[in-house]
Amino acid sequence: MENKKEMRKWLDDLGLDHPLVIAGPCSAETEEQVLKIAHSLKDTDVNYYRAGIWKPRTRPGNFEGVGALGLKWLQRVKEETGMKTATEVANRAHVELALEHDIDLLWVGARSTVSPFIMQELADALEGTDKVVLVKNPVNPDLALWLGGIERLYTAGIKKLGAIHRGFSTYEKTKYRNIPEWQMAIEFQDKFPDLPLINDPSHITGKRDMIFDVSQTALDLNFDGLMIETHHDPDNAWSDAAQQVTPDRLVQIMKDLRIRKESDSEAEYNAQLSNLRAQIDILDGQLIETMGKRMKVSDGIGALKKQKNVAVLQSNRWNQILGAMILEGESHGLSEEFVLKMFKAIHQESINHQEKIING
């Protein structure tokens, strides 16, 4: 993709003094609900009012959206509040109906991004459009697949493009609904620094009380905006109730977020420093999480040794690990002294865990 700067012109033209904000309910449920939420957001930092019209669910039998009827409700939102509107599209029919109802921003969901066939169908349907089109990351952490979907749209003559980072599915149980894999978002920015990148903390967290922290991390990493699901009665929402916030809470989140507004060289330094520190914070969290997983494995080893009446300390095994890790550390620019200190501490903690099991 050449001349990438033209892809963010739509965002620059908004002239915002705050991050782009896309907000509204996960699903359009009733006309009254859609309009009530919209009117409560019209005088806030919200730039695009979002509502899911077609809702692809993981399993059948759940609420799958009101369909094309909801597009008329979004038209009323624009007429009554002046806000621009946004919704998800997943096939040619969705695109045609959304364009017919003058929806301003269309996004492609994570389940669609995984399929080059779907992305090509959408690119063909959207060819030459002047609407904003955003692409969510695929459900699996595949950067090439994400970029490939965007490239298909760009090749179809769509210039108002952007990406949405909504986290990635994992079989492991974590505190997130979808793990952020921040490093992939950072790599995405490195490859396409001029492509607007929006964070979706609602889908990353799955919990409304975590949305602020994830939003702040995204801004520290120089994301251009946020997509936050907002509902006037989130506990009774028809879909994804746990991750939606009230309009009042959204306003408070935007007030509390630390947003850099300086424009001089010192501000650039502070921005770069904050970005690097945010990356370190993310990696530190991953280190602690990995150490926790390692100690759980040690607990299992302790239980096995107790069952077989085997001594905790196995010197041969320990020496093998230490030798291998020193060589591995050197290949990553780590000194032998550092690797020795680190793995001696890890080994001692592992012994402590196993002794607790054996003496339990």
Automatic annotation (TrEMBL):
Superkingdom of the source species: Bacteria
PROSITE patterns per the UniProt record, alphabetical: CHORISMATE_MUT_2 (PS51168)
Domain Chorismate mutase positions: 267-358
Class in the EC hierarchy, top level: isomerase
Coiled-coil stretches noted in the UniProt entry, renumbered to this chain: 259-286
Any matching Pfam family: DAHP_synth_1
InterPro entries (UniProt xref): Aldolase_TIM (IPR013785), Chorismate_II_sf (IPR036263), Class-I_DAHP_synthase (IPR052899), CM_dom_sf (IPR036979), CM_II_prokaryot (IPR002701), DAHP1/KDSA (IPR006218)
Keyword Glycosyltransferase belongs to the record: no
Keywords associated with the record: Coiled coil, Transferase
GO MF, any single term: transferase activity
GO BP annotations, alphabetical order: chorismate metabolic process
EC number: 5.4.99.5
Keyword Coiled coil: yes
Protein name as it appears in the record: chorismate mutase
Taxonomic source organism: Euzebyella marina
Phylogenetic lineage: Bacteria, Pseudomonadati, Bacteroidota, Flavobacteriia, Flavobacteriales
